[in-house]
């Protein structure tokens, strides 16, 4: 599991999950973000996410992370993972929004 080293993550043991005594290659929050992103990317073919819902879904992760960093608050791995899944959902919607408008602008303004 430690072969995935190309992603920037602090990988602190106290903020990571363990499986059979081995630490996950990402912290709990990053694990949630990746799980949420990879679950919701295929669902975007069927369900579109409004940009405001996408940004709203990212907000709990930002609030959790920033309050930990600046207010000396310690979060739980379950909360980190849960808010990470929401952020993955929001990032998937944000990616879809950016891709849609990139293609739209390219086809309507550059090709015409």
From TrEMBL:
It comes from the Bacteria. The keyword Transmembrane helix applies. Keywords: Membrane, Transmembrane, Transmembrane helix. The chain crosses the membrane at residues 26-45, 51-71, 83-111. It holds the Pfam family DUF2085. The keyword Membrane applies. InterPro entries: DUF2085_TM. This is DUF2085 domain-containing protein. It comes from Flavobacterium ginsengiterrae.
């Amino acid at each position: 599991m430690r072969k995935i080293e190309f992603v920037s993550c602090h990988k602190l043991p106290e903020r990571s999950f363990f499986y059979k005594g081995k630490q996950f290659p990402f912290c709990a929050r990053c694990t949630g973000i990746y799980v949420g992103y990879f679950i919701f990317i295929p669902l975007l073919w069927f369900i579109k996410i409004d940009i405001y819902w996408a940004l709203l879904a990212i907000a709990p992760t930002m609030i959790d992370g920033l309050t930990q960093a600046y207010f000396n608050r310690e979060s739980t791995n379950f909360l980190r993972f849960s808010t990470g899944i929401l952020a993955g959902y929001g990032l998937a919607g944000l990616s879809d929004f950016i891709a849609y408008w990139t293609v739209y602008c390219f086809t309507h303004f550059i090709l015409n």
